[in-house]
Write a structure and sequence with these properties.
By secondary structure, the protein is α/β, with parallel strands linked by helices. It has helices at residues 9-13, 28-31, 44-48, 67-80, 92-95, 105-120, 136-140, 148-164, 177-186, 197-221, 244-267, 272-280, 291-295, 348-361, 389-407, 450-465, and strands at residues 21-25, 85-89, 124-130, 170-175, 227-233, 237-239, 301-306, 310-313, 331-333, 367-372, 412-418, 437-440, 445-448. InterPro entries: GH (IPR017853), GH_1_N_CS (IPR033132), Glyco_hydro_1 (IPR001360), Glyco_hydro_1_beta-glucosidase (IPR017736).
Length: 466
């Protein structure tokens, strides 16, 4: 097995806080498997995987990385790679089957054991309460477009919180509500596979309401000072030119991807321009009295998930600026950068621009990079080792982008790579590999890639020099 020494590590870690976190992240459905064990009931992803053509190659999450049975081995792997933080998500239908009623002791027991295993290895557990695996029975009752789901989420959150609050110091309510709302209910690409744009906007609001309800309840029940927050997938939206249709297209993209979440979370209101844009389409955000006060309950940390940025134009290919409904055109155009296996352009300077814009628009909000990584077409050698130069370079340039933002004044307190393991990549099944550790899905063998060794060395050099 070979490794490459860190090039320019001293410059990379210069200016990073002494207590800067170094970690990895995963999610329950993508790695656990064991979908029908110990009382777990179906989630929307179990159902979606049965829809013909929904998942590439007809793949399913029934086994995934078999983490449910291999958890101690995986925790030892995290420790061996030198990470001090592990962000994992809890499977709602494992802890509260069918999304209602009392806690399932066997299901919650898995996360209880995981937490203890991490702490025994000196790894800080970071709990994400929702990473997309909604109990199917709640979807049958209306899912996230139904206001009641927000209250069910808060109830479930407290089942987990009450069990782990004595040992877990950092909590994320939701992971990437944009994906839950838009990919799930507007575009139909993710579970539950619905294409209903007004329903997706209702889902946006009810996801945020669920966050506010859970945050308030957890804060009231906190035994000590805990860090409670939310994780958003956000990016920089660049206009293709200074022409008004292009700048307007970028404004709309930024509004629907970033500000529609952060403005109510931090400022207690939805952005007026986006409310007006939605009204032009006959859509109203279903806000009720008191909702925004709940949604804007103070948070201690913002999780930032970043993968790429995009350029937007307000012109159609024929030069028109409105579509057949009279609505303004918004479409992406290439930035001309290299692409990952996901066909996403690699734009590290967009990362710096994003972090600085959050620091500017939402001052005083500490950030942690809770996901950053890339998929490439890995080629293992005869021993299963992957010399993933592309992924290693991606991490190198994006860590430099984070350091640049910190050195310009952004308050960023950690970096968690996505992902620890190759895993079930949602609608792409097992074709796309994001892991810094290769998983042989036939044998479930785990083999750290070159990128894992790179990140280990960076983290070690930071600790040595702090």
């Amino acid at each position: 097995m070979t490794t490459t020494s860190v090039s320019g590590a001293a410059d990379l870690i210069k200016g990073l806080p002494a207590d800067f976190r170094w970690g990895v992240a995963t999610s329950s459905y993508q790695i656990e498997g064991a979908i029908a064990e110990d009382g777990r009931t179906p989630s929307i992803w179990d159902t979606f995987c049965e829809v013909p053509g929904a998942i590439d190659n007809g793949d399913k999450g029934d086994v995934a990385c078999d983490h449910y049975h291999r958890m101690p081995e995986d925790v030892a792997l995290i420790k061996s790679l030198g990470f001090d933080t592990y962000r994992f998500s809890v499977a709602w239908p494992r802890v509260q089957p069918r999304g209602k009623g009392p806690v399932n002791p066997a299901g919650l027991g898995f996360y209880d054991k995981l937490t203890d295993e991490l702490l025994a290895k000196g790894i800080d557990p970071w709990v994400t309460l929702y990473h997309w695996d909604l109990p199917q029975e709640l979807e049958d009752a209306g899912g996230w477009p139904n206001r009641d789901t927000a209250y069910r989420f808060a109830e479930y959150s407290m089942l987990v919180f009450d069990a782990l609050k004595d040992r877990v110091n950092t909590w994320t309510t939701l992971n990437e509500p944009w994906c839950s709302a838009m990919l799930g209910y507007a575009y139909g690409l993710h579970a539950p596979g619905i294409k209903d744009y007004p329903a997706s906007i209702a889902a946006v609001h009810h996801l945020l309401l669920g966050h506010g309800l859970a945050t308030t309840a957890m804060r009231e029940a906190s035994p000590r000072k805990l860090d409670i927050g939310i994780t958003l997938n956000v990016a920089t939206a660049y206009p293709a030119s200074d022409a008004e249709p292009d700048t307007e297209a970028a404004r709309r993209a930024d509004g629907m991807g970033r500000r529609i979440y952060l403005d109510p979370l931090v400022h207690g209101h939805y952005p007026a321009d986006i409310v007006a844009d939605l009204a032009q389409e006959g859509i109203e955000i279903p806000v009720q009295d008191g909702d925004l006060e709940l949604i804007s309950a103070p948070i201690d940390v913002l999780g930032v998930n970043y993968y790429f940025s995009q350029k937007f134009t307000g012109y159609a290919e024929d030069g028109s600026t409105v579509d057949e409904k009279g609505l303004p055109i918004s479409r992406t155009v290439p930035l001309g950068r290299p692409k990952t296996h996901m066909d996403w352009e690699v734009v590290p300077e967009g990362f710096t621009d994003l972090l600085l814009s959050i620091a500017r628009d939402y001052p005083g909000l500490p950030m942690v990079i809770t996901e950053n990584g890339s998929a490439y077409e890995d080629v293992p050698d005869e021993n299963g080792f992957v010399a993933d130069e592309g992924r290693t370079e991606y991490f190198k340039t994006h860590l430099a982008a984070v350091a640049d933002a910190i050195n310009q004044g952004a308050d960023i307190r950690g970096y968690l790579a996505w992902s620890l393991l190759d895993n079930f990549e949602w609608a792409y099944g097992y074709i796309k590999r994001f892991g810094i550790v290769r998983v042989d899905y036939d044998t479930q063998a785990r083999i750290p890639k070159q990128s894992a060794l790179y990140l280990k060395e960076v983290a070690e050099q930071h600790r040595e020099n702090r």
